[in-house]
Amino acid sequence: MRSERRTKKIRDVLERRxxxxxxxxxxxxxxHNVSAMLRSAxxxxxxxxxxxxxxxxxxxxxxxxxxxxxxWIGRRKFSSIDECYETLRTEGxxxxxxKLDESARQLYEFDLTRPxxxxxxxxxxxxxxxxxxxxxxxxxxxMMGMIQSLNVSVACAVTIYEALRQRMxxxxxxxxxxxxxxxxxxxxxxxxx
Amino acid sequence: MRSERRTKKIRDVLERRxxxxxxxxxxxxxxHNVSAMLRSAxxxxxxxxxxxxxxxxxxxxxxxxxxxxxxWIGRRKFSSIDECYETLRTEGxxxxxxKLDESARQLYEFDLTRPxxxxxxxxxxxxxxxxxxxxxxxxxxxMMGMIQSLNVSVACAVTIYEALRQRMxxxxxxxxxxxxxxxxxxxxxxxxx
Lengths: 193, 193
What we know:
Largest sheet of chain A: 7 strands, parallel
Number of helices of chain A: 6
Helix content of chain A: 25-40%
Strand order of the largest sheet of chain A: 3-2-1-6-4-7-5
Oligomer: homodimer
Radius of gyration of chain A: 17 Å
Shape of chain A: globular
Largest interface: A-B, 40 and 40 residues
Structural class of chain A: alpha/beta
């Protein structure tokens, strides 16, 4: 019984996974921020994130505990933004870097039902110039208060939950996005975790 | 010049403040969570939060630094949920407790342009039964992943940013919500901070 419930839960989650939504994490330093971002990513159904660590050492991410989201989010590592973006473009993603520059558009103006990769940068330095310049667009979260910044894990959650909102509304969680063979294969993989 | 810029910034922020949106923080334990929640609250224009600490000691909140949101968010303390809710109801708020119970409705179904108070509970215990039972409604954030919870400060940001989204769309930040006299008085108060 326990095993049937587990299989059902894994199937349900995989049927809602959004392989067409991802994060690029560029030099995010604090392991707590990385973990919080992966937890939010799991919650909105992100299947895999992209890690680009050029100025920072790759953070240790524990992934043994089932109660941690770390275990349920795939990670691809890239040695440069160029390499990462090229791969994502081949896969059809629009690449949106989170940076308040002159051409940045507000979060709620984007169509996030399209295949979308959001780029988040280091806590202190933000996304690199390369990451911003080579993205398809830059995005900012509206802020109405005295303090003009949010913690990166909070900004990430607000951003990807807007993608969830739009996708729920458009029926994006109603049918599996993996085809049947891939889905079965993933279920088998996850059952072994 | 510096002082003119400061006056303008304070006026701009106060003109966007949402006295009809608030948080009830019930026994939130970790000061980092409290600070993160106040930072998000400032960002969406919340003017004041309600603190109900019955099982936990009230956390120390530093509010001297201008770079901290703590300084710019008013705080009212209550010794019970009853007292807090009674005050909020007199002021016209709908009270929505964040709890996944049988009658909970999904975040995106609520009209958050109405005067709204969101109740967030302790990190481990969640909102108390009293706080949930006596609220007008309970709300949950959709979660599609393996892990069925979010950090309280992340949940808070996602929730109140949905209020910001709805209010921006409805023009809720386009005109001051304080009347002229109150606005001028608040500007004078904030200039002294």
